[in-house]
Amino acid sequence: MRRRDFLFETSRSAIGLALVPRFPRTQTSAGVPDAARLIADLEKEIPQAMTDTRVPGLSIAVVRDAKLFWRRGFGVKRAAPNECVDHDTVFEAGSVSKTVFAYAAMKLCERGVIDLDTPLTRYTPLRILDGDPRLDLIAARHVLSHTSGLQNWRSEREPLKIHFTPGEQYLYSGEGYSYLQSVVTQLTGHVDPTRCATYEAGLKVCATDFDSYMQANLFVPFGMASSGYVSTDAYERRAAHPHDAQGRPLARKKPTAIDAARYGAAGGLHTTPTDYAKFLIEIIDPKPSDRYRLEKRTLAEMVRPHVKGGESPASSRALGWEVIRTDKDDFIVHGGDNPGFHAFAAASLARKTGYIFMTNGDGGVALLKKLIVGDTTLNRLLTTS
């Protein structure tokens, strides 16, 4: 199994475990810890959990009442020399990137640039594979809900193909997001044919202005000054470094515009939990719609369950999000893995609470299990009234 697929599978297992049993419902009353007490407990629990799972660094942000309630960095950016994680430390978000791109894609639907249910081949002459007429059925809704039929990533062993008629069932697909990103770029940006590279199974990809587009249309308007897809001097000064499951340093590649053209939408975002919390707040307590922010009806469609899919029986896929439906509330969640990094975001739509944490170690999956499986302190923060 390729490293990317291994990390994806272990992350999915962790998320599935986290949702069984269902999120607890905690009330703030006599004998029940309030949010401040839960934070104090969490600050004591996290360092030991990091030691147990050999995760060098972690950064976390908690949202309550649709406001940034608490944020904290733990550990170090890299094992040697020791550089402490702080609020400005930038991590790779992995597949949590999909939530941000999905929002931008939904805004393009509002503006009439694309339609959720119009086949993507209507917008572009690009054909990502030949010989399968089902390509002409794949629409943005299929990609965003992981019902396109495309596999997660192509490889020499598994060439790109459509595994079922689009819309019939769920199959998690980074390739689908990469495809939709390429269509969006053709409609809103430009491709630089002089800067290209070869990726999985000989795929040729050229640099685009995807980073600039997302900066102008989401990150800057939302105040996410530490977010992007391409390496800059500021990013390099603040970047966390990846580590393996034993806490040993891994090589870190500086992401280029070509890398962003291939992986940006699916897993190329680098950001801080503080920045991502600003985006999360726009999901759970949106400001009035404008050129950049979604209308409430569009946002409701984005977080509406579309198809059953996930490790938990209560899990469905929305557009860019996984939705966990309980008797009392809907929770939106997403995890993400890149080599040496792990991230996880969760939010309660009804309570307007949420959290995002990011780590710089493959042990982040094990750390995730310690922090969110069952009736944990972090889950109580999400569900405390």
Structure characterization notes:
- The chain is built from twelve helices and twelve strands.
- Strand 7 (307-308) and strand 8 (315-317) form a beta hairpin.
- It has helices spanning 3-18, 35-53, 97-110, 140-144, 174-188, 210-219, 233-238, 257-267, 273-284, 296-302, 364-372, 377-383; strands spanning 57-64, 67-75, 91-92, 191-198, 204-208, 270-271, 307-308, 315-317, 322-325, 330-338, 341-348, 353-359.
- 34% of the residues lie in helices and 17% in strands.
- The protein starts with a helix and ends with a helix.
- It has a single domain (3-383), classed as Beta-lactamase, CATH 3.40.710.10.
- The protein is globular and about 55 Å long.
- It has 385 residues and is of the alpha+beta class.
- Helix 1 runs parallel beside helix 11 (364-372), helix 2 (35-53) runs antiparallel to helix 11 and helix 3 crosses helix 8.
- The longest helix is centred in the N-terminal third of the chain and has 19 residues, at 35-53.
What is the secondary structure topology, with strand pairs?
Elements: H1 3-18, H2 35-53, E1 57-64, E2 67-75, E3 91-92, H3 97-110, H4 140-144, H5 174-188, E4 191-198, E5 204-208, H6 210-219, H7 233-238, H8 257-267, E6 270-271, H9 273-284, H10 296-302, E7 307-308, E8 315-317, E9 322-325, E10 330-338, E11 341-348, E12 353-359, H11 364-372, H12 377-383
Antiparallel strand pairs: 1-2, 1-12, 3-6, 4-5, 7-8, 8-9, 9-10, 10-11, 11-12
Helix pairs in contact: 1-11, 2-11, 2-12, 3-8, 5-8
